[in-house]
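User: Hello! I'm new to structural biology and keep hearing that structure can be predicted from sequence alone. Could you demonstrate with MHF histone-fold complex subunit 1? Please show me the input and the output so I can see what each looks like.

Assistant: Of course. The first part below is the input, the amino acid sequence of MHF histone-fold complex subunit 1. The second part is the output, the predicted structure written as tokens.
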Amino acid sequence: MVEQETDKLSKDSGTDITATPRFTAALVELVYRQLADVGEDLELFAKHAKRKTIIPDDLFMVSRKNDALRELLKDHLQYLERGSGDVNNGHSNPPVSDSDEPFSDLSQP
């Protein structure tokens, strides 16, 4: 994924952009730690509510300071609730964005 994005950036900017293996490893470590923290927070929110199951409200609590992410999650939940994208039935997930640009929706106010 990192290689694909750097290739795209190179083409778009007209310069040679690469990611070293060290950078890629650091990025993987950063993402892993972030996801581990989110998972721990989700567990703690559920436990605080005296539940053993994590529910969407827990995820909204974790994302409460990121309005763009919260809106994406709400949209995706509504999509799933309509029955169009139950991931357990092998249906495809909805497009998160009309743009092919990574994080394009997150930069909007």
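User: So the tokens describe the shape?

Assistant: Right, they're a compact way of writing down the 3D structure. Reading them back into a model, for example: Residues 63-109 form one domain.
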